Amino acid sequence: MILQSTITCPDCGKAKIETMPTDACQFFYNCASCGVRLKPKTGDCCVFCSYGDVPCPPVQKALEKNEPSHEKCQGIAKITSRTKEFGMA
After folding, report:
1. Is 11 left (phi over 0), alpha (psi -120 to 50) or beta?
2. Nearest in space to 62 (alpha carbons), one of 52, 71, 53, 49
3. What local confidence, expressed as pLDDT, does residue 84 receive?
4. Using CA of residue 68, residue 69, residue 70, residue 72, what is the dihedral sign?
5. CA-to-CA distance for 5 and 35, rounded, in angstroms?
6. Are 31 and 12 in contact (CB under 8 A)?
7. 23: Cβ contacts below 8 Å, ≥ 6 apart
8. Mean pLDDT for each 10-residue chunk of the chain (89 residues)?
9. Is the dihedral of CA 31, 88, 73, 59 positive or negative?
């Protein structure tokens, strides 16, 4: 399981590597550069699935088990391609 994701602020473009919580989805994220408070895009479970380069651990777990719970994220094609890139699919 990958526990770090590079989250990119859509307002200022600043990217930062963050450690993701392993037992829950993170709903809010405050950009350290511009201070904007990010929340998930409609249909995504957390800010990492919306703005990160690696899906959150709960989604990674679901993908590893071929469970449908990861489908709650709007960008499932995006997430699937990322997991293949990291050798998870």
Report:
1. alpha
2. 71
3. 47
4. positive
5. 19
6. yes
7. 57, 58
8. 95 96 88 96 90 90 74 48 48
9. negative
State the virtual CA torsion across 82, 64, 67, 89 in degrees, nearest 10.
40
Sign of the C-alpha dihedral, residues 10, 26, 71, 88? positive
Phi and psi at residue 49, in whole multiples of 5°? Answer: -70, -25
Contacts of residue 32, defined as CB under 8 A and 6 or more positions apart, other chains included, come to: 14, 16
How do the domains of the chain map onto residue ranges? 4-85
